[in-house]
Amino acid sequence: MTCTSQVDIKTVQALLTALQNDNQEEVAALLDDLTQLRESELYQRLNSLTNNLHGTLDELVDNQLLLQTKHDIPDVTERLEYVLSSTAEACDKTLASTEKAMEISESIQTFIQENLTDEQQAQIETRLNTLNTELTNILLAQSFQDLTGQVLNRVVLIISSLEQSLIQLISESRHDYDAIPDREEGSEQTSAEMKGIGPNVTQKSKQDSLDAQDDVDDLLGELGI
Fold first, then answer.
1. Domain co-membership, 96 together with 10
2. Residue 121: other Cβ atoms inside 10 A
3. Molecular function terms in GO for this entry (predicted)?
4. How far is the C-alpha of 192 from the C-alpha of 180, rounded, in Å?
């Protein structure tokens, strides 16, 4: 039995005695003692729980997670947004070109009706109908862009939400998000991870490319080339 428990029992016994004796002042004083004691215990338990929580957060938030939150997640988000804008732009160009081609096909059809024989008209109209069918298929196929765009937009929202949650977790674990350092460049792991990432579409990758080109230019200048 703990010291606190012994104090509780003695205080309760004294409270019962005071109640039996109808000693209101002593009853009030003992109740205050019990209340303060329970509040003190509650504070200690909450403080212990808070410390344990911070300790758990410190274990969860390792250096790799810090770097991924600060650098990798924003990089992925920016690349997905690039894919979204690029596919939307390509889709718009395809639709515009297809509609223009269909207009040209209609003008040719008008022209042949006025200047060619019936047999020639029939042959060319058959080919034009085939062309129009293919152009219509192209227009219908572009509907995929709407679907993939919706999916990618949803992915970007989820990643952004995850990023904010991780930033909050980092802050609650008493880490300074703004003080997280840049990734070390030149390591074998970094080189392997960078393979197959595509063109320089993010601000960071564009700046890295410019810096690398500046280094090459400086070297060539030193060699007199």
1. no
2. 15
3. catalytic activity
4. 22
Q: Left, alpha or beta for 198 (phi > 0: left; psi -120 to 50: alpha)?
A: left
The answer to whether residues 190 and 71 touch, using CB atoms and an 8 Å cutoff, is no
Question: Who contacts 33 (Cβ-Cβ below 8 Å, separation ≥6)?
Answer: 11
Query: In this predicted model, what pLDDT tens digit does every residue of 22-40 receive, in sequence order?
Result: 777 787 777 777 676 565 6
Q: Write out pLDDT tens, residues 36-93.
A: 656 566 556 666 766 665 666 566 556 777 777 888 888 888 888 888 888 888 888 8
Instruction: Report yes or no: 76 and 84 within 8 Å, Cβ to Cβ.
Output: no
> Of the candidates 52, 73, 51, which has an alpha carbon nearest to the alpha carbon of residue 180?
73
Number of domains in the chain: 2
Burial 127-155 (b: 16+ CB within 10 A, else e): ebeeeeeebeebeeeeeebeeebeeeeee
Helices (H) and strands (E) in the chain, counts: 8, 0
* Same-domain status, 72 and 38: no
- State whether 45 and 105 are in the same domain: no
Confidence tier at 4 by pLDDT (50, 70, 90): very low
- Within 10 angstroms of residue 125's Cβ, the number of other Cβ atoms is 15
Q: Average pLDDT for residues 174-190, to the nearest whole number? A: 67
Please report whether residue 198 resides in a domain: no
Q: Which H or E element spans position 102?
A: helix 73-115
Q: Comparing C-alpha atoms, which of 193, 188, 173, 217 is closest to residue 71?
A: 193
